[in-house]
Design goal:
The complex is a heterotrimer of chains A (99), B (135) and C (119).
Chain A: E1 2-5, H1 14-19, E2 27-30, H2 45-52, E3 57-60, H3 61-66, E4 78-80, H4 82-91, E5 95-98
Parallel strand pairs in A: 1-2, 1-5, 2-3, 3-4
Chain B: E1 20-25, H1 34-45, E2 51-56, H2 81-84, E3 92-96, H3 97-102, E4 115-117, H4 119-127, E5 131-134
Parallel strand pairs in B: 1-2, 1-5, 2-3, 3-4
Chain C: E1 2-7, H1 16-29, E2 33-39, H2 60-71, E3 74-78, H3 79-85, E4 96-99, H4 102-110, E5 113-117
Parallel strand pairs in C: 1-2, 1-5, 2-3, 3-4
Helix pairs in contact in C: 1-2
């Protein structure tokens, strides 16, 4: 399953909740304000790095760039564009949005 | 529950296709409309004979607690509608244990029979679904 | 693949409609088919023909209209949510249609993937 998270982890618990519901083969895509969950040096970084050990985590690059966070992305988080977002949705059996 | 749902218009032949639909509820009732309007989707979905489950996670667990009296805020109390789901053959209501306990709730606080599952079990359930709707 | 899209929020206030649009655009460019875009909750406001954003900003309503027209995408506004919010035939942008929640379920059944954009 592809899990999308669109809210910042410091605003809402959506990312935290999402990461507690991942099974083998699941991937997470951070979009919109959710891209703040992809950043180094925040209170959420450790939680995300831990999840990254077992699951691919992606961030929508246009949202990262829009927010000026280009130089702060956690190593290992893969950046995708909207075309990549579509590919991820197609590759996984279903998509769940954590709003 | 509004009557103006426009009826069920099946413009394509959906007969025979049965998919697993999961409705994920993570928001509390009344502060926003998501709880009410997601329930309206569930009721309409009942007519399509799909395999329906409802998940209550995080603040979504508050949607199914007993004792909701909404006269003071002047909005319709829709919690009794959860009891009507059984009549539509929608009986798979799952409440996440960790969310329930974090909010000081117990199984007998709920207005309908629910299955309390751990986050891991909820994750297992989610992985088996064909369509997941979040509100 | 056949993709279904659910949009739960209105234009401008939330990014949901923008992200959904850019996703849909990328999908059709890759040769996928968008089966239906279903607008629910405040998402119904994406069909309001009376919106008048500033000239130098994207016109979200018209953008959906054009994408739908160019790619035969079914834009469906939930009748119950629309009535609650005052979206009716008289202020519905051309290219959108008002219909029941059954259309969302049908999209879930008929599409290979259903993607939700919300708050």
């Amino acid at each position: 399953m592809l899990h999308t998270v669109n809210k910042s982890p410091t605003e809402r618990n959506a990312l935290e909740s999402c990461l507690k519901h991942l099974k083998k083969g699941c991937a997470v895509l951070l979009i919109e304000d959710g891209v703040y969950g992809a950043l180094k040096g925040t209170v959420s970084t450790r939680m995300v790095e831990q999840a990254l050990k077992n699951h691919p985590i992606y961030a929508l690059y246009p949202d990262i760039e829009a927010r000026g966070m280009q130089d702060r992305v956690i190593d290992g988080i893969k950046l995708v564009d909207y075309s990549g977002f579509v590919d991820l949705a197609v590759e996984h059996s279903s998509v769940q949005a954590w709003l | 529950m509004t009557e103006a749902t426009g009826g069920i218009e099946m413009e394509e032949d959906t007969s025979g296709k049965v998919k697993k639909f999961l409705y994920v509820n993570r928001k509390a009732p009344y502060g926003t409309i998501y709880a009410l309007e997601s329930l309206e989707v569930v009721l309409i979905a009942a007519a399509f004979d799909q395999d329906v489950s409802l998940a209550f996670i995080d603040d979504g667990v508050y949607q199914v607690v007993k004792g909701q009296h909404t006269k003071g805020i002047d909005v319709k109390n829709f919690s009794p509608t959860f009891r009507a789901l059984e009549g539509y053959d929608i009986e798979k209501l799952y409440v996440e244990k960790e969310s329930m306990e974090a909010r000081g709730l117990k199984e007998d606080d709920f207005i309908v029979p629910v299955k309390v599952v751990s986050a891991q079990e909820m994750a297992d359930l989610m992985e088996t679904q064909d369509v997941v709707l979040s509100f | 693949m056949k993709l279904g899209i659910l949009i739960n929020e209105g234009p401008y206030t939330h990014q949901a409609s923008d992200t959904a649009y850019l996703f849909a655009k990328a999908a059709v460019e890759k040769g996928h088919k968008i089966h239906r875009v279903f607008f629910y909750h405040d998402g119904v406001y994406n069909s309001n023909r009376l919106t008048e954003p500033p000239q130098d900003d994207r016109h979200i309503v018209n953008r959906w209209q054009k994408l739908a027209k160019d790619n035969q995408i079914d834009l469906v506004v939930c009748v119950a949510a629309a009535l609650r919010r005052g979206i009716k035939d008289e202020n519905l942008q051309e290219g959108f249609r008002i219909s029941g929640l059954g259309q969302l379920i049908e999209s879930g059944i008929q599409s290979d993937r259903l993607v939700t954009f919300g708050d």
